[in-house]
Amino acid sequence: MKKGSVTVNVAKTTFSADKKSVELELASKLFEGEYTVNVTGLADQALTGSVKVENEKVAKIELLGEVAPINAQNKQQATVAYRVFNQYGEDITKSPLAASITWTASNGVTARDDDKGILTLTNTSDFKTGDKVAITGINVSTNTVVSGVVTISDASATDTVEFVGIYNKDGKEFSGDLAVGDFVLLLNAKDQYGNDVNASKVNDDVVFTSSNPSVLAIDKAYDGQGKDKDKIGLKFTAGPNYANGGKVIITAISKTSGKVAQFEVNVKAAPALDTFTLGTPTEIVAAGETVKLPFTAVDQYGNTVTKYEALKGKVTFNTDKAKLVKDASGNAVLEYTAPDTKGLQVLVATVVGSGKVSQLTIDVKEAAYAATIESLKNVTTTVAKDGKVEISLSNLVVKDQYGRTFDLKDKLTNNGNEASLGKYKIVVTDSTGGAVKVAENGTKAEITANDGKITITGLEKGSEEVTFKLQRVEKNADNTYEFKDVATSPLKVTFNTVDKSSFTSFEIGEIGKLYADGNESTHAKALKVYGVKADGTKVELPSNYYNVIVDSNVLAFTGGKLDVKLDAEKDKDKFGTKDEITTKITVIVEGAEDPVTLSKDIVVSKVAPKADKIEFTDAVKNGTASIAVDKLKDDTDAADLSAVLKVTDQYGVEIKDPSPIITVTNVKEKTVDENFKVDNNGSDKVDIQNAEAGDTFTVTYVLDGKTATVKFIVEQTPGEQTPGKQTPGEQTPGKQAPGEQTPGKQAPGEQTPGKQTPGEQTPGKQTPGEQTPGKQAPGEQTPGEQTPGEQTPGKQAPGEQTPGEQTPGEQTPGKQTPGEQTPGEQTP
User: Fold this and answer.
1) DSSP conformational letter for 395
2) How far apart, in whole angstroms, are the C-alpha atoms of residue 359 and residue 278?
3) 201 phi and psi, to 5 degrees?
């Protein structure tokens, strides 16, 4: 379809049942002019037709009644309804086209409309029932006229109410888990003259009641409800049993006519957890480890419940070792922390609402330890004579006794003392006079820290077996500590040393672009030269195998690295109009028979470094990271939030301490108190305030046009109590309980460890006649009859003191041994 040369957008085409005609619905109204329609696909040539269209206009005005009811609040006013139609018979009463009608009335009465279909007549004195008023309305632009005579009548009052049905904008069923304000009961209401009335009139003239206010209570009627916002709607408030659902009869009674209308509303009970079934662990559960246990949660309708918020507080466990936590997707995950000793553990889950129970027996295995070095990864076992191979912690594949990967990070030490009990070191050994060596002096090297490494150097052509093993700090019978071999740990790896005769060719390793950083040397890159064996194996050559020649005006070769001497700013004239220049390096390798000359073009750029790749550290797992509450208490949190980033520039060099623009979104507070606030959002100085453990939020980083997103979960600072709470007897940090001893000192009268106060029981032993907690001695009274341990008058417990006597070392009531804690206090 076109209007002149302009194509008109057809929003919808509706074909007739016989497919011989089609209705075209445009995206906007038609405007005056000639429209041409072309139809193709029926003949060789397009079929063409045209139609002339005129602009929409007022074509008809109607008064909708012959009576004008008096306004009950102002008897000098009366109202009559009217409607306006366009030339197509469509109601345009509320359209701007209908806003230019001029009204006149007889007998000194003024008439004014509200542009919405109500004409108000105003007299200089009170109207009387039966008064006649002649009315004329004219739309000047189309010369459309309406006239009529209305009779003043008694005040209008709502006479009838007709309920239409429950409306929800998303078509959802009325349910106790949804906001009650999302639902409205639509209705039609008319006065005694058959005219529609508005919500205000309905609220004045109609009494609404609810048969079950504990589920739904009445709010009031509102205009502008329904899909087209043209209906009256009755809204509700939630009663105390709204979530439980139920049947509610809504009754409407007209105050003037007594007419009654009723409507039955059925509120579906909110889904409630019915069963929580524990599943068998799919992985080994070792002592002291935290694992995820499978579970199935189902509501009363048979639907699976997975979201954390839907399960929070709905399930209890028989131990604090089990808890539900929220993952990055908002789903619930059941975490179980095994005790520090092996054995069978029984976990019981109880649904709070239904009381249904699920039980699981967990076989807790012996605590995991680093049992074996399984292999090396990303390590070449061929080394050139005088060449070197570095091996660090990341190159070792370590497994525990269950065959699982064991992470040695933060578990290495060089000290065989009590503080290092259970920690490890990696010991690497070779033989004397072999093809390689693992240490400059001797035949043993060790890795004792996260960043530790050992270097294997090629000595003479040939092969040699190198042994890698674990040693762990253990306690001896005499209470001393020392490193002992982990018997199952040794890994033997054969390293081969080759000389120049083993290489069929040589090559320069990839270097990439270099940045003109002048004297900074921040972007110097290592130059690596390789010897290539017949089977394609590449072996890095030691620097004494070759010489490097560079253009000294552009580059320097120092310490095995290529460094640009040019400065991007000071020497920009060297680049001319370009951002890059090319220089050549030459490497002369001393081959087995003859020297071999290699060359490579090196691109030098003056373009300033900027972020090219944003990656994450190991702190981010599956797009989620955690952050301690105390990290968010500074004036700016940008540095802590950026600590999870690993940013490299276009030259492959890591950008230290990046400063991206940080935007915090999708905040979900554990406690919905709206205290969580973000200052300077969308800047590099973002500051999060009032965060608490359990809050989650998403951070979007923008740096040099590169973006990355991480979801953060706020965690309690390790060892810190929930704000405002304190373990009974716990001391404020930095303060000391009254009488508490400084570590390493001893209170007067305090026993040396291993010694015992007279009459004191050894832990785990029991005073004769003393009952194990939870058990009852024969003849013991039921709680509430007698204070536990209280003696029947005239009887005396074995070993009990006669009144007035005192056990040696016992304190007189009300007195306290120096250094002793008041009940409820606790030394940190």
Assistant:
1) G
2) 7
3) -65, -40
Query: Does the model's pTM come out above 0.90?
Result: no
Helix boundaries (H) for 412-544: none
What are the contacts of 732-738 at 24+ separation with CB within 8 A?
737/821, 737/822, 737/825, 737/826, 737/827, 738/822, 738/825
Beta strands in 27-99 (DSSP E): 33-39, 47-53, 58-63, 67-69, 77-86
Helices (H), ranges, 190-250: 199-205
**CB neighbours of 776 closer than 8 A, spacing ≥ 6?**
none
- What Rg do the C-alpha atoms of the chain give, in angstroms? 44
Q: Say which residues have a Cβ less than 8 Å from residue 248's Cβ, sequence separation at least 6.
A: 210, 211, 212, 215, 216, 264, 265, 266, 267
Contact between 120 and 112 under an 8 Å Cβ cutoff? The reply is: yes
Q: Which two tokens stand for residue 110?
A: 């003024």
Residue of 708, 721, 738 lying closest to 816 (CA atoms): 738
Which burial class, exposed, middle or buried, applies to 38 when counting CB atoms under 10 A from its CB (0-12, 13-18, 19+)? exposed
Q: Mind listing the pLDDT tens digit for each residue in 445-503? A: 999 999 999 999 999 999 999 999 999 999 999 999 999 999 999 999 999 999 999 99
Q: Which residues pair with 589 in a beta bridge?
A: 546, 596
- In tens, the pLDDT along 740-769 reads 444 444 443 344 444 444 344 434 444 433
Pick from 272, 222, 221, 223: nearest CA to 245: 272
